[in-house]
Structures are given as C-alpha cells and as structure tokens.
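Problem: given the chain below (321 residues), write out its structure.
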Amino acid sequence: MAPFNKPLSGLVTPRFGGIATFMRLPHVPLEEAEGLDIGIVGIPWDGGTTNRPGPRHAPRQMRDMSSMVRPMHQTMHIVPYELANVADLGDCPVNPANVEDALKRVETYFRKLVAKGMRPLSAGGDHLCSLPVLRALGEKAPVGMIHFDAHTDLYDGYFGGFRYTHGTPFRRAIEDGVLDPKRTIQIGLRGSMYDLDDFEWGEKMGVRLVRIEEAMEKGPKAIMAEARKIVGDGPTYVSFDIDALDPAYAPGTGTPEIGGFTTFQAQAMLRELRGLNIVGADVVEVSPPFDPAGVTAHAGVTMMFEILCSMAEAVAKRREA
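Solution.
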C-alpha cells in the first residue's frame, strides 16, 4: 500500500509559504483521486443565504487559516494522516446564479466522490450545501446526523414557499428519505423565532432537539452521550454550523445568535465523536466579509480538524475489521 499523504510541515516550510490547501495537504482533483479515504472539499456557494451573504468566500479563507493546524491532536494524540489517506480535492462545481442547478452540480460531484469510496469533509458555503451532500451519501439508505447549530434548519419554506434556503435543508433531506429523523440530534438551538413550526415538525418526525439551555445545564459529555446513543453504530453525518458558537468567538457568520457555545465547549463535544461511524461531515456558514481577520475561519477549520480525527479513526477501524 502506498504511503498516506502528509501535510507540509511548518518546521520545514513556513506556514505562510506555499499554496494554500486544507491542512497543508496535497491538492488532488477528484478526477485523479485514487486510494483516498477522506476527501476535503470546498463548497464556495451561498445561494441559500437569506440574511448576511458571504459564505461563498469561506473555503478560500479557511484553507489559508488551516495552515495554523498542526498534524497531531493536542489531547487525543491522534495524527489523522497516519490513520487515513486524506487530500484536498479542491472546490466542487457550483452555480452562483441558480439555486437548483447549483444543488444538482454539488450532488453530482459528491456522488462521484462517494462512488470512489471516499468520505467527504466539506467546508461551505451556507447550510443548504448539506442537502446535496446528504442526497449523495444517503442514496441507498438514510444516514443519521449529529448537528450543531443555533437553528434547526427544518423550516418548510421562505418568501411564499420557496423550498431551498439555508433554513430548510434538513426538512428536505428527511422528506427525500436520505436523513433518518429518529437518528438525528440537533444541539445548541437558540435565538428568537418566527413561530414553532420547525420545532413542532422536527419533534413530530422524531428529531431530538436540544436547546442551548439544556445543553449548558447538562454539559458536553452528557449531551454527547445521548447523541451517541441516538445515532448508534450506523452511518452518521456530522454538520457543524459555525453559528453554534457564540458570536464573541465566531462573528463572521450570516445569522449570529448570542448565548452560544465557547470554542472549547464545541471542541469538547466534537471529541466525543470518537468511535462513531462518521461517513461524512461539514462545517458551514463561515462568512469572511464579516470577519476579515479570519478568527471565525480559524475556529471553523479547527472544528474540521476535530472531526477529521474521529473520521480517520473510523476509517482505520473499518480497515482493520
């Protein structure tokens, strides 16, 4: 077996040098990708955004900020690149002028990725980007999901019934049969609301909705113990909306809500993903125009690294089985 890809070391080449890629890994276009376990992908698209735009610019800034991520996890001592073969696949095709065409392009791309036996870890883009990825991953059987967010994204429609926005992806995914609501938990929900439609519909479908008050009262380990029980051993998707974090830690996002998680609380929860069968994941809603300094993007790629470590362990576990 050929050796796995390794990141460019900051001890050899300065972090500010070289071409920016996720985690300083080699860039391998999807068409040329063979023997990869995990493909990191940018989705530079925010056609589902309904408030402050800008997540289309996130993959570029997140790649730059990912140069700050060293290879070894500081507490778990995992080096994901020793457990799985990982590469930056570049950005998938999008259409900034047409929502439904963009969804088709993203879904087509991720179907090809999945067909090559890879697990995707993507950087959006707004949260509507999750829908076509789930359509590709859940084509044969619905997946479960652990979802960190201030919002449920379970609304039915916006602006007179328009069904595709960043507030509707998981309602569409459940309706499409690619997301199993009874194996889905949403953590960190908060903020003022239009009504209770999204909560009531989610509860009716069997989604576990965890408001921020409950999450804070119980703490990361207890909440994630329940999350692990809900998704079980089955294929699981992890979706992290950066607005799960309090805007003090992640100001660059489209729909900020105060009273959110600290970056450390989020890391503590993500570290409890170890041992789960994570078949795909994303970090979405980073909006560089509202945080040119890149603090939000840095938080986003750090969350990606936390998830990547557990994904790589899942790959290694399956390889050994």
